[in-house]
Structure formats: C-alpha cells, structure tokens
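Retro notes (design track)

What went well: tokenization of the new backbones is finally stable.
What didn't: we kept losing track of which sequence belonged to which structure.
Fix going forward: every design gets posted as structure first, then sequence, in one message. First example under the new rule, 427 residues:
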C-alpha cells in the first residue's frame, strides 16, 4: 500500500477521536453537569438534581454495556462496523444539538437527550475501536492508537477552550449571556462531531463478508456468536486476565477523572481553578499520548501501561497530602502525562491478543468493562470517606484499584495471547 494511502487511512481514523472528544470534554465533563443543576433543574435541591444526573449516567452506561457484546458480534458477522458507527454517531450528534432547544426547568427532556447522546457516543466507540485492526499493522498499532487519543485530547481541548471563553465573555461573541453561550456550545459540539467524522466513513476500509450475508442473517448470527464469545473469553486465560486487570485500573483512571473536581471542591479550592486544571490536562494529554505511543514501540505496550499505572498510584498518595491549589495544577499536569497513554496502550495491547476477524465482537466486551468503569471507585471513595470521617482517605483508597489491576496485568503473557489469537483466526 502506498505510504500516502496508508497515512490517509490512519489520519481519517484518528480524526474521529478528534471529533467525538468534544462531547466528552464540553458536554460530559464540562457544561452539562453544571447547566443541569443551575438551569434545567432550577428550583430543585442540589442533592435531588445530583441523584437525577447520576441515575441518568448509570442508565446510559447500563444500556451501552448490555448492548456492547451483541452489537460487536453482529458487526463482525455482517461486516457493518462503519454502518453501526454512523448510526450511533448520528444519534449522539442529533441529541447533543437538540439540547439547545430544551427550556429552562425542563430537566426530564434534558436528561433524556443526554442519555441518548451518551449512548450514541459510547456505542460508536465500540465500532471505532474495532476499525483499528484495519488501519494499522502490528508494528504501528501502539503509535496509531496513541495518535487517536492525542488528537482527541487536542480537538476536545481546543473546542472546550473556545466554549469556556464564550461563557466568560459572551458579549464578545454577540451572545446575550453565559446561559446562551452554553446552549450554543452544545450546537458547536454537534457540528464539530459531525464534520470531523466524515473522513472515517470515506477513507477507512473494513473487511467484506459474503454478499449473501443479509442484515437479518447478521443479527441472528450475531446472537449466536455472542454465546460463543462468552465461552471463548472464559477459555482464553490471557484475554480474561487482561480484561479483569484492565477493568480495575481503568476504573481507577475514570474515577479520578470524574471525581477530581469534586475532591478539589471538598478541599476548598476555587471552581475556576478546577476548570483551568481540566483544560490543562487536555492540552498536556496531546503530546503525552504521542510520547506514550513511542514508549509502547520501544519498551512494549505492557511496560508502558505499568509506567502509567505506577504514576496514578503516586497521584493517589500525593492527593492525600495535597494542601494548595498549586499542587492541584501540578497533579493535573501529571495526570495529563499518563492518562491518554494508559488508555491508548491498553487498546493497542488488547488488539494484539484477540483474533482480528472477531475484533468488534471482542471489543464489545472491552467496551463493556469500560462502561462499568468508575463504578467501584466512586463507591469506594464515598464509603471510605464516611467510615474514616476524612475525605482525604477516600482518594487514597483508589490506590487499591491500581495495585490490584497492575498485579493481574503481571500475569498476562502477550506472546501466548498472540499465539492463541492466531489459532482462533484460522478456526
């Protein structure tokens, strides 16, 4: 394949990360939780609105987790990965843009749209991840996976920075107030997501199956294959151990992402400082993700993951002793250095130990665990904080997830996993 054609495929694939990361930063991590409390849930107590938002997030996660293995199996048998990616991306884009029209106080509609948008975002990632095996060869898997995460950090961070500026100085952009700026930001995310998703559909190929395989047959075969995949993963010791270890340490990663701002507020830090730190993490994550791709190539993906998990372990200890806002900024930089690396190298490592012709099916399980991430961690933080009577112990408790996840990863034999995956491809 000519180098230019290969590069076009790689960049087109990675641009989808640039596209949909705008939803993760501006909507999920940034504006929706705040706007939900202050605008759509006006007149509702803080504790009730928190419960409603938490229930919505949990419902979306459960739906995606339940669908992930089935959708992955269907896509593999029907060779329809890009078609499913299109369906879910469009769901996320349309629902995100529709948030602009939700009236003040109408939290039910806002939450319903947010749940559907989250399902679109998460469901699409199943098929986006599975296309990696068609874009990169074995020798480039780590660097290409890292490029996707790097562009995601940069793209999501750039749009988020613009959206934050819009809310701080709405008159500069011809807007009435910060509330209108936030609503316009949802439209910006939808447009950004849609425009930068186009290349993956035009320039990334996927394996073709027998033309006689109809969509209906693909659905039937997909359910049959799902049952088979349960048996495969149960018998594939390498894949099973990796998925279990991944579930634990990625739960720790996601917990810190979701709870860091809350923890900082509990220490009395200013909200503006916490938002600035979130932006800082995004922009540090861009070059760091690319660097981790190089680390994966030189040292191996497994060692790269260990480096990231070890840094996170240090973060939980440092967070326990943290006293000043300056330290929160420093922690944000440290997290930005390894967050994308752990995610990208985990994805590329997993790609190595699964059969390529069943990638979407196996990534269904991978994403299933990802959707259940940040379930153990937040509960552990809350429980430990109550038992100990000190919030600082709650962040320290997350170290258990990194220790246990790293211990399980130690027993994952990459060479054995590759050998078994190749055998399964031939069956």
């Amino acid at each position: 394949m000519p180098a230019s054609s290969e590069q076009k495929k790689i960049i087109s694939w990675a641009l989808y990360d640039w596209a949909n990361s705008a939803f993760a930063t501006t909507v999920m991590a940034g504006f929706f939780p705040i706007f939900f409390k202050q605008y759509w849930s006006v007149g509702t107590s803080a504790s009730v609105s928190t419960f409603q938002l938490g229930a919505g997030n949990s419902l979306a996660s459960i739906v995606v987790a339940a669908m992930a293995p089935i959708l992955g199996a269907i896509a593999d048998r029907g060779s329809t990965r890009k078609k499913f990616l299109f369906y879910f991306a469009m769901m996320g884009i349309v629902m995100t843009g529709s948030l602009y029209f939700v009236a003040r106080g109408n939290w039910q509609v806002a939450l319903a749209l947010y749940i559907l948008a989250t399902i679109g975002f998460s469901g699409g990632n199943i098929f986006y991840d599975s296309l990696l095996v068609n874009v990169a060869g074995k020798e480039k898997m780590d660097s290409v996976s890292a490029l996707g995460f790097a562009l995601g950090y940069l793209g999501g961070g750039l749009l988020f920075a613009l959206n934050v500026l819009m809310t701080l100085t709405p008159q500069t952009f011809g807007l009435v107030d910060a509330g209108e700026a936030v609503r316009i930001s949802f439209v910006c995310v939808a447009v950004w997501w849609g425009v930068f998703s186009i290349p993956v559909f035009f320039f990334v190929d996927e394996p073709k199956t027998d033309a006689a395989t109809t969509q209906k047959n693909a659905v039937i075969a997909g359910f049959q294959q799902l049952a088979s995949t349960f048996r495969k993963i149960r018998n594939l010791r390498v894949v099973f151990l990796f998925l279990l270890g991944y579930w634990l340490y990625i739960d720790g990663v996601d917990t810190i992402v979701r709870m860091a701002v809350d923890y900082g507020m509990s220490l009395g830090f200013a909200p503006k400082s916490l938002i600035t730190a979130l932006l800082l993490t995004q922009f540090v994550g861009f070059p760091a993700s690319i660097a981790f791709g190089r680390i994966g190539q030189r040292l191996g993906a497994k060692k790269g993951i260990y480096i990231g998990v070890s840094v996170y372990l240090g973060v939980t200890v440092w967070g326990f002793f943290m006293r000043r806002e300056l330290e929160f900024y420093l922690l944000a930089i440290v997290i930005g250095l390894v967050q994308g690396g752990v995610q990208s190298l985990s994805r590329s490592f997993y790609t190595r130990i699964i059969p390529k012709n069943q990638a979407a099916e196996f990534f269904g399980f991978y994403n299933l665990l990802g959707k259940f991430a940040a379930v153990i961690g937040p509960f552990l933080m809350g429980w430990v904080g109550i038992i100990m009577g000190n919030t600082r112990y709650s962040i320290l408790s997350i170290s258990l997830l990194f220790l246990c996840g790293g211990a399980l990863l130690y027993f994952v034999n990459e060479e054995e996993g590759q050998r078994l995956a190749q055998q399964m491809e031939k069956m």
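Added context from the reviewer: DSSP finds 17 helices and no strands in the chain.
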